[in-house]
């Protein structure tokens, strides 16, 4: 079993007056014409920032934003609009520093007053960040007392600020922030000796993207619910007609392996028994009901049907732990969103622990206005997927109590 995660309350500030904290956040928010269009990641970071400020820390925040070239400043990827939002939320001054690799930077940090924080400009303006460069990390960690990582969405990447900077600090001066702590509690802790029944819901575009997670859950779940385009590869394998639905012909042997593993452990696999179809894959295409598991040759399945949604909801509501990863249909188009909406609603009616993996299922439940009614919606796409697959994330490994 993985060692315990070190958290904020493990940090001992008693030997320091106004300790300097290097705080890695995930402030990679969407921007349109220089304006933040979704503040979720900013508000998710605030509890840790506030806690550190309350403890009298001088806080140096940093993050990446988008995909700059790594050859210096690019205005469109500047964290300036993010700094303004944080300042407004906290009612404090946020000093955006672009020249944090220069000697003069430490003076700025030394002179910080209680009403000021520092935000380092986009770490990815330096190509050393994504290379995990140790020399770059040494400069970043210089004159800092503690390392805190609350950037869950980046924990699957061994970037300099995620791993090499942490390693510049002794273990007792490293910790995970509140967001990382919560993500680990739900995405890892919920499946350690869970109460049965455990139900895992998988959907989305491809079986091939989810093989590792499907295989992992054959040894954790009691029920595996399959929807989205991947259901058609399963149905085809079972001998059903799937019409023009998206099928990965070359993945049949993987489907066979998953079904075999599930049978061996008596895991129930639930597949669609009816569908919402269309004759072509274009926005605005009319929805055509298909009342049986078989789909006519001229149609493609774009959502689970109402009978399937009711069966899935029954299983979900009776579960003690539920995890949902991937939409049941093309939820971006209203005519094919009902299957995903029904699953989301069933999650809100389940008395057990209900967890939504990041990415498209998180986007779907948020769009349906139900995100507040489940136990946890992950903020990380790739990171939540890798954690559910049972992988140790590099950004988490350096925060474990014993390495
Ligand atoms: P993923 O990123 O693998 O979770 O896939 C999410 C994408 O799968 C969404 O953009 C959905 O529109 C798409 N999707 C879900 N169901 C289907 C389907 N039956 N046919 C085609 N695309 C689908």
List keywords for this structure.
15 helices; Rossmann fold; alpha/beta; 403 residues; binds adenosine monophosphate; 2 domains; 6-stranded parallel β-sheet
What does this structure look like?
- With 403 residues, the protein is an alpha/beta fold.
- The protein has two domains: 8-184, Phosphoglycerate kinase, N-terminal domain (Rossmann fold), CATH 3.40.50.1260; 190-388, Rossmann fold (3-Layer(aba) Sandwich).
- The chain contains 15 helices and 17 strands.
- It has a six-stranded parallel β-sheet with strand order 5-6-4-1-7-8. Strands 11-10-9-15-16-17 form a six-stranded parallel β-sheet, with helices on both faces.
- The model has no long low-confidence stretch (mean pLDDT 95).
- The site of adenosine monophosphate (AMP) has 16 residues, from β14.
- The site of adenosine monophosphate has 16 residues, from β14.
| List of distinct ligands in this structure | adenosine monophosphate
Q: Determine Rg (CA atoms, Å).
A: 23 Å
- In which order are the strands of the major sheet placed? 5-6-4-1-7-8
Count helical runs.
Answer: 15
Distance between the termini: 12 Å
CATH fold-level assignment of the largest domain: Rossmann fold
Write out the CATH superfamily name of the largest domain: Phosphoglycerate kinase, N-terminal domain
- The assigned structural class equals alpha/beta
| Portion of residues within helices | 25-40%
Largest sheet: 6 strands, parallel
Q: What's the level 1 CATH class of the largest domain?
A: Alpha Beta
Q: Provide the residue-averaged pLDDT.
A: 95
């Amino acid at each position: 079993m993985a060692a315990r995660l070190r958290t904020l309350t493990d940090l001992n500030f008693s030997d320091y007056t106004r300790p300097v904290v290097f705080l890695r956040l995930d402030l990679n928010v969407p921007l349109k014409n220089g304006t933040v269009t979704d503040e979720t990641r900013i508000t998710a970071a605030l509890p840790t920032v506030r806690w550190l400020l309350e403890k009298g820390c001088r806080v140096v925040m940093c993050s990446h934003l988008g995909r700059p070239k790594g050859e210096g400043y690019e205005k469109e990827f500047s964290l300036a609009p993010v700094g303004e939002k944080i300042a407004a939320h906290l009612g404090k001054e946020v000093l955006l520093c672009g020249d944090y690799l220069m000697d003069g930077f430490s003076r700025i940090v030394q002179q910080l007053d209680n009403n000021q924080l520092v935000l380092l400009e986009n770490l990815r303006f330096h190509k050393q960040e994504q290379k995990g460069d140790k020399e770059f990390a040494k400069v970043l960690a210089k004159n800092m007392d503690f390392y805190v990582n609350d950037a869950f969405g980046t924990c699957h990447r061994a970037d300099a600020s995620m791993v090499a900077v942490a390693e510049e600090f002794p273990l007792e001066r490293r910790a995970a922030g509140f967001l990382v702590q919560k993500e680990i509690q739900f995405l890892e802790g919920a499946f350690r000796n869970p109460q049965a029944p455990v139900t895992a819901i998988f959907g989305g575009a491809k079986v091939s993207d989810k093989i590792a997670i499907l295989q992992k859950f054959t040894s954790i779940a009691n029920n595996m619910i399959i929807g989205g385009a991947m259901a058609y590869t399963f149905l085809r394998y079972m001998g059903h007609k799937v019409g023009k639905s998206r099928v990965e012909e070359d993945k049949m042997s993987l489907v066979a392996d998953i079904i075999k593993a599930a049978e061996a452990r008596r895991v129930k696999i639930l597949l669609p028994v009816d569908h919402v179809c269309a004759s072509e894959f274009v926005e605005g295409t009319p929805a055509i009901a298909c009342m049986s598991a078989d789909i006519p040759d001229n149609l493609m399945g774009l959502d689970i049907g109402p009978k399937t949604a009711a069966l899935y909801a029954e299983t979900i509501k009776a579960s003690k732990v539920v995890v949902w990863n991937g939409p049941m249909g093309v939820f971006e188009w209203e005519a094919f969103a009902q299957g995903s909406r029904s699953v989301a609603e069933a999650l809100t009616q389940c008395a057990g622990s209900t967890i939504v993996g990041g990415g498209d299922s998180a986007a779907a439940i948020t769009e349906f206005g139900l995100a507040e009614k489940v136990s946890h919606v992950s903020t990380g796409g790739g990171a939540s997927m890798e954690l559910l697959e049972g992988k140790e994330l590099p950004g988490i490994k350096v925060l474990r109590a014993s390495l």
